[in-house]
Amino acid sequence: MLIIGLAFAGEVCTTYGAPEETVQVNSGFPNIQASGLAAARLEDDLYYTHDDNKGDAALYVVRGDGTFVIEQTVTGATNEDWEDIASGPCPASVDAEHCLWIADIGDNDQIRTSVDAWVVRESTAAEEPAVRCPLLYPEGRSHDAEAMFITPDGTLRIVTKDNDHAKVFRLSDPQCDGGEPQLLTEEAEIFLEEPVTGAAMSPDGASVVLRGLTKAWLWTGCALKWNGDYVDVDLGVQPQGEAVAYANDGSLVSTSEIIDTEPVRLWRTPCAETAPLECADCGCGGEAAFLLLLPIGAWTRRRRG
After folding, report:
1. Which residues make Cβ contacts (< 8 Å) with residue 225, sequence separation at least 6?
2. What is the pLDDT of residues 29-84, one digit of tens each?
3. How far is Cα 143 from Cα 166, in angstroms, rounded to an integer?
4. In 166-240, at which residue ranges do the beta strands (DSSP E only) sit?
5. Helical ranges in 129-250 per DSSP H
6. Is there a contact between 270 and 20 (Cβ–Cβ < 8 Å)?
7. Could you give the 3-state DSSP secondary structure of residue 159?
8. Which residue(s) pair with 87 in the sheet?
9. Rounded distance between C-alpha atoms, residue 123 and residue 118, angstroms
10. pTM recorded for the entire structure
């Protein structure tokens, strides 16, 4: 696993403005449920999405203007129930600069004994081989989840989908060699107004966003102490809000999981206000990490677990 020592000092977005006009993905894009979304880190304004339950093991690459680029076959992987995709550093088993982590974590009936993350190097090739990271929840329990993100130091986090709360599970050093399932650690239980359907972390590790069907929630800092302050974020009116990603310019890009009656669209929500942040542990994965909270005024809402 690539480990990155981080010390962040700079401006971080504390509030987001009104969503901009939506962009419709153009002709040629397949009729899929766009269940997850990740921004490319090696190229600006390029995004990866994928189908939902039992869809093809493939990534669909689009540009921010709606141009469909390519369907990329993910060889060696299966799509049991792909629910999210995250940009992040590569595990030791992938020799590449940057990777995409596909969250095969959906479990509506809560019957799966283990779940998977599939990892491919970031590219626009027609095919990419995947490595498998098998995962196990504590006590062998099952959870339905639709949100996963990767911190800059390579720590994996899954956020469950529940009506009135969500659990956060962590794995500090995922081994993606297809071996025995690795045990996740329960990190927090958080209480939100809607079920969590997507997640993303900023490339610098300074903020993390979770989203629900109609809104999102922003944490600023190391994002390890969940029961602190968060900011509500308006992502616009989406038929069934499903996925969210950080663009390289700091704006949020999101999608809605609707097929047949609605085309796939991209919503962009620009940053409205920033504040200075110094964070020695931004993006860290250790138990001793701390969260630096910003004075973000009337937009801030307090939640305690």
Report:
1. 188, 290, 291
2. 888 888 999 999 999 999 999 998 888 999 999 999 999 999 999 999 999 999 99
3. 10
4. 166-171, 182-183, 185-190, 198-201, 207-211, 216-220, 229-233
5. none
6. yes
7. strand
8. 100
9. 15
10. 0.88
